[in-house]
Amino acid sequence: MKAEASPVMTDAAANAKPITLIEAVTQALAWEMRHDDSVVVLGEDVGVNGGVFRATAGLQAQFGPERVLDTPLDETTIAGLTVGMAAMGMKPVAEAQFDGFVYPMLDHVICHAARFRYRTRGRLTCPMVLRVPWGGGIRAPEHHSEANEALFTNVPGLRVVLPSSPARAYGMLLAAIREPDPVIYFEPKRIYRQYKELVPDDGEALPLDVCYVLRDGSDVTLVTWGAQVKEALEAAEQLAAEGISAEVIDVATLKPLDFATIAESVAKTGRCVIVHEAPRTAGFGAEIAARLAEESMFDLVAPVERVTGYDTHMPLFRLEMKYMPATARVVEAAKRTLAHS
Length: 341
Description:
The protein has 341 residues and is of the alpha/beta class. It is built from 13 helices and 14 strands.
């Protein structure tokens, strides 16, 4: 899918100012809390301190401690409260301070939140969002730099969203809060403050469940999500300088996957490189590669390439960026696909 600009300049668009991805999260939360009294925010230090990354800065002052709740340092309790609030008709947005802190929440998320609609044959839903700062690249210690999205894509009943820009972070968070079923909303913290773009505060949600084609191309398809969109776009620029046309797709919503957009691109290019930060084995890229083998095999003129993290925990500090898929690795993988005629 390609986002199209509105032909009419709204007041919000005219007054928009450049903001970072983390500011876009704050902006979306504030909009939805102003317009829907059932939306509440909860988590460790989200109120007085505004969260470890300041994603909720100022929200408690605007909406009060009954709607922006500082919780105990207990992820299991946070998840349980969130599921309970959602079951009673509220729209809670919970924060896991870091990706590696999400594991104590899995019981409530997998065994209850993800099953409400199925368990009640559609009579009850669980309209909750779990915000998870995600990924490496910030020189943090163990449990603070994990790319664990594949854990959740394997769970029926969950949506898994991973925006890669301020505009998509804003629009997709609005859409996630408005969903009647649970959404795992990963935020790539490496690019929280990396760049700014204009994001009108107009309450316009972006569609979930679609991929975004960020760059047209005809020779090879680069498929990625989250912070690695930056490296994919850089690789496309380098390839273009050598006369190679790369199409770049931001998956954005991993579950459910908009495979049709990927398949359409591969039918055009005949080649695919999948880029993700998570470890290689059973990473979500393997699911995309399997679908290509099943449904697009006769469109492929070269084996699918994966450029990923390694099958180890994130190495601390000095080796951290060696672990991350670099632009050069993406370029090399693309060229390997082009070696096949």
